[in-house]
Amino acid sequence: MPTFGALGMSMALLTSAGSAHAQDASAIAQLIQASSKVTTPWSLAAFAIAALVVIVSLLVIKPNAATRKIMWICAAAITFLGLVPIIVSVFVVPPVASVYRIRVTVVGPGQTPVEDAKVWSTIGGEAKKVAGGWEFDIPVASKPATGKFTVFAEQPNAFLAGSREIVLGADTGMAMAVTVPLEKVKPARVRGFVQNEEGATLGGARVMVAGYAGEMIVTSDNGGFELPAHAASGQHVLVHVQKDGYVSSQLSHLAGDDPLVVMLRKKQSGD
Q1: N or C: which end of the chain has fewer CB atoms below 10 A?
Q2: The last residue of a domain, from among 137, 154, 184
């Protein structure tokens, strides 16, 4: 390291200054060489003061042996002060980071990266979109007792979803990279009943999911129907219901197991 080199030359300079056979020109040359290698403020201050003591010793006051010894001790002490910040930076353990950084990459069935997925976790917290994926910054205080949590990802329009369990270790300062593979999710269905205003079931009603007229079905006497939702479970689908003599109905409903009850009103003269 440049700092250690500069301080080493400073000490060599002090030694040469103490020698009865040292030459003034040589000491000054070493001083110039050492000064070019000082890089930190503390070591620069220590070097400058030590060099000043040496220059004064060599060129000005020509002290006796006792005074020279005191000046060398002062110079050595100041140089040691210059080493303190370096010793601390090398040997003192840095503070432990307080955040786990989790980098998430989502890939599709063909192992190609997916950039438009929805990503979240059981711990919560916002997934930050970064180049090539997402990132979670999880505070140590949010770490589960087991150290385990799950990252979820989905691409609803493509019926793709996936998850990955992660175990948080003791090293909070290190970034962890995980990959969440997406797999095909079985499309949900939409089911329910058609009834009149009195609550009686209506057979013969035509039911379809918006955009899929070719899959329209006719309700049986019990008024029941079931259709492909063309959506994942929990997604909204638009259902059209019509029957001769009744006002048509169009309802938004969540795909899945919860039944949709559609009430049709009889047409009046003004309808």
Answers
A1: C
A2: 184
